[in-house]
Amino acid sequence: MGAVPMQGAQVVSRIAGLLRLVARSADGMPLAGLVRESGLTRPTVHRLLASLASEGLLDHDPASGNWVLGPEILLMGSVASARFPLEDIARPSLRRLAEATGESAFFSIRRGSETVCLLREEGSFPVRSFVLHEGVRFPLGVASAGTAIMAFLPEAEQEELLADWEKHAGAFAANHTRELVRESLGTTRMHGYSVNPGLVLEGSWGMGAAVFDRSGRPAWALSLTGIEPRFRPDRQEELGGLLMAEAHRITQQLGGNAAG
Known about the structure:
By secondary structure, the chain is α+β, with helices and mostly antiparallel strands. The protein has two domains: 71 residues, Arc Repressor Mutant, subunit A (Orthogonal Bundle); 170 residues, 2-Layer Sandwich (Beta-Lactamase), CATH 3.30.450. The strands form two sheets. Strands 6-5-4-9-8-7 form a six-stranded antiparallel beta sheet. A three-stranded antiparallel beta sheet has the order 1-3-2. It is globular, with a radius of gyration of 19 Å. GO terms for molecular function: DNA binding; DNA-binding transcription factor activity. It holds the Pfam family IclR_C. Keywords: DNA-binding, Transcription, Transcription regulation.
């Protein structure tokens, strides 16, 4: 693959892919991990990383050996945040959810066929789940935020994802079977909120509610995560109600319209 000349859109796609991989964690990712996850050859990855570093988009951490996001990314993000004041809008809802429930609260965005966690607010309960944090990506339909969003997509878009589900869900397909996901989507539409019963990590439960854009499409999601005993059936209705109330509040602030 590295012997093939990289031109135009192919270069952009590969660079974007590497940046997303590095951005999965504040600690970055080692070269070996980037090669494995990207599917590119080692020389190709190394060449692209060096070019990104020369532009300040990435840094190489000599202590860990990992590649991490560079200062130019911070500058770009600070400019972009003026167009997308999501933290100013979503943070108060996250704080209210964390304070009211004691669980950790999250705000995620849909990016293509994935959800990306943008914001986190820790709850007061001393035992926590650490499955989700800023930058973590999941396929749509996986985890509570992705299920909440996918449940309110048009049926044709849902079926497109389900048709090639094993490839879409990847490593999560074993626990998130097509049949189980279909059932979860229907339950989410009926109740208005999703429940993930430890399917990503055993014992780590989550619940989510979609936030809608101006066209009525689910574009973001609020979620709560914690240990299984904190999400017992008799508490799910209470948590779901809180999630939906805050999701509706953010939808209105963003000028959106909830799906009917």
